[in-house]
Structure formats: C-alpha cells, structure tokens
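User: structure tokens for this one?
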Amino acid sequence: MTDLLISLYPWIRAVHILAVISWMAGLLYLPRLFVNHVEQAGNDQKIALIFQSMEKKLLRVIMNPAMIVTWIFGLMLVIIPGVVDWAGVWPWTKGASVLAMTIFHMWLSRKRKELANGSNNMTGRQFRLMNEVPTVLMVIIVLSVVLKF
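Assistant:
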C-alpha cells in the first residue's frame, strides 16, 4: 500500500491542492454572502430567499465536498513516508490551523441555518470581521508548509 501511495504522490498532492483552493474560495465567499444577505435583504423575503439559495448551494455543492476531499487527500499525504517531518513545528501549526478552518466551516454552516430560519443575531460588520479568519489561517498554513518552520 505504501508503494502505491508513493507512486501516486504527485496526483494525491495535486488533488489535495485543487480541493484546498475550492474550499478556500467558499470559505472566503460565504461570509461575504452573509454580509450582503444581512445588509440587503432586510425585510424583503424575495431577496432573502435568493441569498439563502446561494448560501445553501455554495455550502452543500462546493464547500462540503471540497473540505472532505481536502481532508482525505491531506491524510493520504500524511501517511506517505518522508512527506512529513514530525520533529518540526510546521506539521503541528498546519494541523492546528486546518482544524481551526474546519471548525470555522462548521460555524459558517450553523450561521447559514440561522439566516435561513430568521434567528441570525450578527451584523454585516461582524460577518466582515469573521471573513478575515480563513485568510489568517491560510497564511499560517502556507507559511508553515513552504517555510517549514
């Protein structure tokens, strides 16, 4: 099994990177949809329904599958001998950041449900601030992996 993973390493890494890009696109875009939803829909149910549809499709069709593929192929990379030097700090900072990103994803999913059922208590400004979370995590992950600190 290990020999197969080693021979497939470039493909596993490529799929992992593609999934990460898709997941990040959603993590950056969904909070922006929330900002527009809160600030533009107001009491207009027709506009609110359009935003709800966009948010639900983004989460279910793009973000959830991309997160799952990211995790599967990331774990495949981890088990290939020689890919990760566990004595370094970088795999631990990357791992913690990926866990934080997954928790953020789940938080976004909960907020989407709150917006859909009318129980949202966040403002557009608060969603704008939360939109910075995936960016900060992405910077930590990329610097961890590339610089291997």
